[in-house]
Write a structure and sequence with these properties.
- This protein is of the alpha/beta class.
- It has 8 helices and 6 strands, in the order βααβαβαβααββαα.
- β3, α4 (about 115-130) and β4 form a beta-alpha-beta unit.
- About 30% of the residues are buried.
- Bound molecules: farnesyl diphosphate.
- Farnesyl diphosphate binds near residues 23, 40, 44 and 138.
- Farnesyl diphosphate binds next to α1, α2, β2 and α3.
Length: about 250
Amino acid sequence: MPAPATEQPSAGPVPRHVAVIMDGNGRWAEQRSLPRAAGHRAGARTVRTTIEHSVRRGVAALTLFAFSSENWQRPAEEVGVLMQLFLEALDREVAELDAKGVQLRFIGDRTRLAPALVARMVAAEARTAGHRQLDLVVAVAYGGRWDLTQAARQLAGKVEAGTLEPGMIDEAALGGCLTTAGRTEPDLFIRTGGERRISNFLLWDLAYTEFWFTDTLWPDFDESTYEGAFADFAHRQRRFGRTAAQLGSS
Ligand code: FPP
């Protein structure tokens, strides 16, 4: 049987920062009459290959949505499986990420996570701090609205303490209080699994991001699919509010 056609690496610019909603694990498992947990385990393997391909292609930053504020509403058993999977993935992968020069950080509401998991997250962040090959952020117990709310609370606290004038609150001040502060905004947003929505992911940060959707379920997302997203991105004209004519003359 001939090998499936593989998308060649695109010639155009590679996005510096890619943000991904990894959707479709459950359906992938159900299509195979497997428990949903098997889909999440397969999804974890795709996380690894996606990180590897990002490093190969020179992507500078990758943000993965692993568990949303709303995912707490899933059946307790599935939440437990996912938390266990995060723990195991950390134990298994951190040494490899460290060796590859990947800096790993987490965003999200840690107060809702088990202390044992938080301890592993903190240790992984410390171990990989300062690496420059890839800035990998995993969003766990994260929601864009949660992030904006906690930022507003910080600003209100500063106003109450007398260290900030309300009139001084601008986009930089608010952006600086988000858990994503200091990172470049995503250039490319990818959602697998066929849905066309952002599901409370990086609401502030995606303002000028290019969106790319695929019906491919996350466990089936491979290099070729990733290259398809890069190829499409390479043809986008990013105007950031300007006209095409302005871009042509700049
Ligand atoms: C969405 O698929 C996926 C999740 C809620 C979990 C994402 C987790 C992983 C990819 C596993 C491990 C991650 C790390 C960072 C090690 P879904 O369950 O909503 O799928 P469905 O829409 O088909 O039901």
